[in-house]
Amino acid sequence: MKIRLIIGISLLLVILALLYVFILSDKLEKAYDNASYHLSEEEKSLLQDGDIILRRGYGFISARIVETLKDTLNISHCGIIVKIDSVWSVVHSIPGNLSLSKDDGVKVTSLYNFIDDAYDNSVIITRLKRDNANQIAQKALTYAARKVPFDYDFNDNDTTSLYCSELIFLILKNEFFLTPETLGAKKNPPPFSVFTNPDFFETIIKHR
After folding, report:
1. Of 98, 136, 153, 186, which is the most buried if we count CB atoms within 10 A?
2. What's the Cα-to-Cα distance from 79 to each of 15, 141, 144, rounded to whole Å?
3. Whole-angstrom Cα distance, residue 112 to residue 152?
4. Which uninterrupted H or E stretch holds 33?
């Protein structure tokens, strides 16, 4: 009975994720024309599902994140790249006060909307050095379909809500047994620079 229940729940999550992707695809395709920070066609050809995108945003909160982390990279936000009906998009977790829809948590946005809020030359895209790194994108979409809320407490021990890098770390831990410490983080919250650790990640695009 328990096995049937688990299978049923898993199928439901997959169906919800596919439905979520279908509904979003039309909206995401229209976002490109409104963005001012673009990737070149050559750069877009390098992208793959599951790539990790880093950027620094404008505003007080972004500045505070950079100041607090004191990282070697001046980065304030991150997400996971996914391709939805031939449109490149990003799964990320964002607080409600930064969301135009006034809700928060894990959501999907156009890649171009994601980087449109970036400082010039602040975007970095990296890829986990694993053959099945595209699993990161698949798992990220399930969290978006479940509408997991934003973690305002930044509590890594509670996965019922997630902040931006916590989403990525959770997937890396569950799918690849990689923790922030394994990736080289020596403090909490872990700095964004761990996603550029050459022992685990390949840098695909770097606007610096």
Report:
1. 136
2. 23, 11, 12
3. 26
4. none
Q: What are 21-70's pLDDT values in tens digits?
A: 444 444 444 444 445 677 899 999 999 999 999 999 887 878 888 888 88
Tokens of 140: 């990220």
The Cα 80–Cα 34 span in angstroms is 21
Burial class (CB in 10 A: 0-12, 13-18, 19+), 40: exposed
User: Alpha-carbon distance 25 to 109, whole Å?
Assistant: 10
Between CA 87 and CA 25 the distance in angstroms is 7
What is the 3-state composition of the chain as percent helix, strand, coil, each rounded to the nearest 5?
Answer: 40, 20, 40
pLDDT classification of 120: cutoffs 50, 70, 90: confident
13 φ/ψ angles, rounded to the nearest 5 degrees:
-65, -40
Angle (nearest 5°) at CA 169 between 163 and 172: 145
Strands (E), the chain: 52-55, 77-84, 87-94, 105-110, 124-128, 201-206
Domains and CATH numbers, the chain: 2-206 (3.90.1720.10)
